[in-house]
């Protein structure tokens, strides 16, 4: 009877105690979270319940599994103890990562709620993301090293690795030059405030928003939902446009190639009417002027403003579309034409046919006809 009760008490007691302590911890965190809703830390720490229970259960079993008295356990005592040690190290790394993540996310949430500057919030978000990746990488490496050191014979292997560290270091440095360059570039981007998550950028002629920043690559989401993945060293070695630097308000231009007879003054009166009906225009500024001329056309530039890049694109499209439609309906003579003439016959040039539509437009403008 004792051979049956002892294993049940040891194993069952460990499981029951683990579940009980996990429930008590979750209950306490829930009550503290209800009393202090302004601090998200306690709610985030509730995510540590599962790794905490795994660590606790593994530690209890590691210290009491020999007391079960089962013959299979006594035969494989060393192997079972080794496996439990490995699980304990892995669960401990999991718990540390969850705790650090909760603290960092809580700090970021409080900073974001108390700061009104979106640029600073994006900068801190980028730094927090990279800090979490660095901490996770360090914890994983330390946990893996601790697991390896639990195996017999690793000391000799470590001595052999240290003896050849010089050659291995040279080879690894040459082979991983690009990777290390991206790694240091990631640190430079995170703490040099060059580009942040949520920034609107133009890279290689592609317009998009920075969606993810890691220690080695950066992902840009384009307007058509594509993802451009680029090494972070690109942003430290090549010029790129960051439309979110210095504020998100932007100024854009719309160009029109028109006939020399285009009614520029009437267009200048029409532009504020179009912008008045456009919700994307922020009302800060607008202008319209002739910026260039060619033998066949003039170049008219309209300037509009918006609160961000998305609204600026919408405003430019609205101005372009409605202004062209208005010119086509009210002033068709202003749209550029391509002049053509028939080929000569037997050395005699044939005069082009009369353009009655254009002539009618001219008479309407001059008051003749």
Please describe what this structure looks like.
This protein is of the alpha+beta class. It has two domains: 2-177; 250-334, Alpha-Beta Plaits. Helix content is 59%, strand content 15%. The protein contains 13 helices and eight strands. The strands form two sheets. A five-stranded antiparallel sheet has the order 4-3-2-1-5. A three-stranded antiparallel sheet has the order 6-8-7, covered by helices on one side. A hairpin with a 4-residue loop joins strand 3 and strand 4. The longest helix has 38 residues, at 77-114. It is elongated and about 110 Å long. The model is unreliable at 164-178 and 355-369 (pLDDT under 50).
The count of domains is: 2
Give the helix/strand class.
alpha+beta
Question: What's the N-to-C terminus distance?
Answer: 121 Å
| Stretches with pLDDT under 50, minimum 5 residues | 164-178, 355-369
Taking the sheet with the most strands, its summary is: 5 strands, antiparallel
Please count the helical segments. 13
- Number of DSSP-assigned strands: 8
Percent of residues in helices: 55-70%
Q: Rounded to an integer, what's the Rg over CA atoms?
A: 35 Å
Principal-axes geometry comes out as elongated
Order of helices and strands: HHHHHHHHHEEEEHEEHEEHH
The fraction of residues in strands falls at 15-25%
Average residue pLDDT: 76
Query: Can you list the strand order of the major beta sheet?
Result: 4-3-2-1-5
Brief descriptors of the model:
2 domains; Alpha-Beta Plaits; disordered C terminus
Give the topology, please.
Layout: H1 2-35, H2 41-45, H3 49-64, H4 71-75, H5 77-114, H6 118-149, H7 154-163, H8 165-175, H9 177-192, E1 200-203, E2 206-213, E3 217-222, E4 227-231, H10 233-237, E5 241-242, E6 250-258, H11 264-276, E7 281-293, E8 298-306, H12 309-330, H13 356-366
Antiparallel strand pairs: 1-2, 1-5, 2-3, 3-4, 6-8, 7-8
Helix pairs in contact: 1-3, 3-5, 5-6, 6-9, 11-12
């Amino acid at each position: 009877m004792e051979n049956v009760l002892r294993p049940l008490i040891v194993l069952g007691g460990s499981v029951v105690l683990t579940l009980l302590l996990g429930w008590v911890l979750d209950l306490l965190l829930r009550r503290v979270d209800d009393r202090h809703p302004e601090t998200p830390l306690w709610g985030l720490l509730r995510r540590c319940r599962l790794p905490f229970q795994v660590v606790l259960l593994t530690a209890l079993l590691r210290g009491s599994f020999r007391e079960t008295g089962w013959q299979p356990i006594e035969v494989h005592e060393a192997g079972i103890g080794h496996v439990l040690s490995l699980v304990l190290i892995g669960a401990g790394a999991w718990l540390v990562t969850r705790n650090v993540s909760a603290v960092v996310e809580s700090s970021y949430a409080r900073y974001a709620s108390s700061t009104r500057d979106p640029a600073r919030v994006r900068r801190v978000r980028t730094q927090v993301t990279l800090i979490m990746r660095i901490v996770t990488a360090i914890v994983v490496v330390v946990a893996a090293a601790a697991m390896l050191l639990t195996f017999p014979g690793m000391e000799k292997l470590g001595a052999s690795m240290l003896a050849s560290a010089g050659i291995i270091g040279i080879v690894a440095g040459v082979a991983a030059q690009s990777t290390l360059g991206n790694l240091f570039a990631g640190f430079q981007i995170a703490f040099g405030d060059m580009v942040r998550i949520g920034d609107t950028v133009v890279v290689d002629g592609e317009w998009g928003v920075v969606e993810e920043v890691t220690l080695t690559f950066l992902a840009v989401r384009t307007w058509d939902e594509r993802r451009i993945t680029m090494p972070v060293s690109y942003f430290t070695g090549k010029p790129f446009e960051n439309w979110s630097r210095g504020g998100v308000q932007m100024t854009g231009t719309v160009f029109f190639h028109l006939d020399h007879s285009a009614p520029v003054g009437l267009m200048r009166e029409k532009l504020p009417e179009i912008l008045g009906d456009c919700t994307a225009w922020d009302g800060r500024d607008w202008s319209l002027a002739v910026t260039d001329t060619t033998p066949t056309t003039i170049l008219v530039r309209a300037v509009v403003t918006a609160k961000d890049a998305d609204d600026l694109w919408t405003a430019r499209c609205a101005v372009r579309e409605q202004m062209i439609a208005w010119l086509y309906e009210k002033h068709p003579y202003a749209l550029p034409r391509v002049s053509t003439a028939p080929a000569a016959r037997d050395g005699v040039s044939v005069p082009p046919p009369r353009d009655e539509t254009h002539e009618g437009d001219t008479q309407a403008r001059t008051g003749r006809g």
